[in-house]
Every structure is written in structure tokens, then in C-alpha cells.
Amino acid sequence: MEITIIGNGNMAQAIISGLVKSSHQIQVVGRSLEKLEALKKQIPQITICELDKAYDITNQNIIFCVKPYNLTEVGAKLTGTANTLYSVLAGTTIQSLSQNISSKSYVRAMPNVSAKFCKSMTTLTGDENIKKEAIDIFNCIGQTLWVDTQNELDIATAVAGSGPAFLAHVADGIIEGAINAGLKKEDAITLTTALFDGFTPLLEDDEPKDIIKKVMSPNGTTQAGYDYLVKNKVKDKISQTIQTAYDRALELAKS
Ligand SMILES: NC(=O)c1ccc[n+]([C@@H]2O[C@H](COP(=O)([O-])OP(=O)(O)OC[C@H]3O[C@@H](n4cnc5c(N)ncnc54)[C@H](OP(=O)(O)O)[C@@H]3O)[C@@H](O)[C@H]2O)c1
After folding, report:
1. Ligand 1 lined by 122 (C-beta under 6 Å)
2. What is the whole-number distance in angstroms between the Cα of residue 28 and the centre of ligand 1?
């Protein structure tokens, strides 16, 4: 399938890096020819096109990858009616997409930057008639989950869209703690990276509370660190982080 990506920023580049490994043909449309040419040097399989005053999207399958506040400005330059519009814009409803860009079908997609390594967790919702096609496309960059409502997608945005930033904050804390205790920086990074890698199968196998039980012995080292987390209500703070990110998606949807 021919897919046109509009926007060439962080998320677009992560999606493109994943999608070119499949058989899709990728065209990237952006406002800076210089940036597009630099991207083509990195990923020669793509074709590029500068978005100047107007761009005809008739019958195209678009993955729309600009910031939510650029929707009106970029939408005004798109002429014709697309075949499908997949939007990755956080907190931007299908109603407001359809007011700005004409398409036969709309799907909201919430991938994450792990798309670059074909490890994105992408949540999808929208027109059921293209559900299978949407899942097939985004399965090329990792796993997908189709949800029934845009509200669920906004919650998923906080979890899996923003999630890499939240986990990076945790990783940063672990690395900093290890360095402060006297470990070499590169060793602290090696340990933390392997820790995250080995954690996924544990989480697939057990609930978090059971993993904690298996690691912790009474009065041991884990217990000492875990008690500190509990005393400082770190779980509540993380839970509140998800709520705060979700609240922001709701605010964006209203604005
Ligand atoms: N980053 C993430 O982890 C993540 C995860 C899930 C969803 N998202 C969603 O992905 C979208 C893009 O985020 P991002 O992190 O990739 O942002 P970004 O790196 O800033 O990229 C935004 C892109 O939009 C382009 N753009 C802005 N105004 C434009 C205009 N008037 N005409 C043409 N192109 C224009 C920018 O062009 P220039 O390069 O020329 O400035 C840039 O390529 C957002 O809606 C966000 O909600 C992001």
C-alpha cells in the first residue's frame, strides 16, 4: 500500500523507520525541503514532497503526524478527499479532524516512539470499516490494540503514548542512584537497560504485586528500597501522573 506521512518530526520518523521494513511504499510530506532531504539520506526507500501552499490528498492513505495545534494551519493546505486519515495527534477528536481535513474514513492512532524498533504499542479507534486495515498497518511497527471509544484512546495516550517519557524518568533515577553510589556511568546504563529488557517477560508472567513478593525477602535490600517507595507514596504519584496526562488530553480535545 502507498502511505503518505504528513509531518517529519520525532513521531513521523519513528513510524517511517518501522514501516519501511514492511512492503509499504512511503511518501513523506513536510514543510522543510532541507529536513526532508536529510531524512531521505537516512532512509533512502522513502519519497519526499515539500508542502508549500497546497497539497492534494485525493484518494491517499495518510498518517497525519503534526502537533495538535498545527491541525488548522496544515489542514487548510490539504485539498481533495483522502481515502483514509490516520491521525496520531494527541487529544484531537475525529470530529475536529473531519472539520479540518476531508477523508472517506478516519482512525485515531496512538503509537509511541518505540515504533523506530518495531516495538510500538499503538492504540487505535475510529471507523470500523477500516479497522482491519488500520491494525495491519500499525502491526508493522509493533503491537496494536483497537478500543471502542475515543475516551479510551485518550487514556491509552497517557499510558502508552507518553509512557516512554515516564519510564525514561524512572530509568534516569535508577542510573543517577547507581552513579551516586559509586558505579561507573556506562555500567549504570548497561545494568538499567538490561533491567528494563528482562522486566517485560516478568510482567507478562505475573502481576506486579507477585513480582514484588518474589524479589523481596524480609529485612533484605529490596525491602529497604521498597519501604522507601511506599513511605513516599511513589505508586500514588505514578498513578496520578497517568491521570494528569489523561486530563491534558481532555483539555486538548476541548480547545
Ligand atoms: N513524540 C511522541 O512520543 C508521540 C507519541 C504519540 C503521539 N505523538 C503525536 O505525534 C504528533 C507529532 O509529535 P512529534 O513529537 O513528532 O512532534 P515534532 O517532532 O515537533 O514534529 C512535528 C512535525 O510537524 C511539522 N509541522 C508543523 N507545522 C507544520 C506546517 N505548518 N506544515 C507542515 N508541517 C508542519 C513539523 O515540521 P518541521 O520539522 O519543519 O518543524 C514537524 O515535522 C503530535 O500530534 C503528538 O501528539 C507523539
Report:
1. no
2. 13
CB 65 within 8 A of CB 6: yes
> CATH number for the 163-254 domain, one of 3.30.420.10, 3.40.50.2300, 1.10.3730.10, 1.10.10.10?
1.10.3730.10
Q: Please report the atom of ligand 1 found closest to the CA of residue 51.
A: 33
| Every domain range in the chain assigned CATH 1.10.3730.10 | 163-254
**pLDDT digits 0-9 by tens, 6-39:** 999 999 999 999 999 888 999 999 999 999 999 9
| 21 Rama class: left (phi>0) / alpha (psi -120 to 50) / beta | alpha
Per the DSSP assignment, residues forming a β-bridge with 87 are 64, 108
**Which atom of ligand 1 has the smallest separation from the CA of 112?**
5
Pick from 75, 78, 80, 81: nearest CA to 100: 75
Residue 147's pLDDT is what? 98
Answer for the pair 81, 57: CB distance below 8 angstroms, yes or no: yes
Pocket test for ligand 1, best of 29, 37, 67 (most atoms within 8 A of CB): 67
Residues of the chain falling short of pLDDT 50: none
- For the segment(s) 2-147, the CATH number from 3.40.50.720, 3.20.20.80, 3.30.1330.40, 2.60.120.760 is 3.40.50.720
Task: Evaluate whether 101 touches 83 at the Cβ level (below 8 Å).
Answer: no
pLDDT of residue 253: 84
* Residue to mutate, 31, 64, 138, ligand 1, most ligand atoms under 8 Å from C-beta: 31
pLDDT recorded at residue 23:
84
197: CA distance to ligand 1 center in Å? Answer: 28
Would you state the pLDDT for residue 176? 98
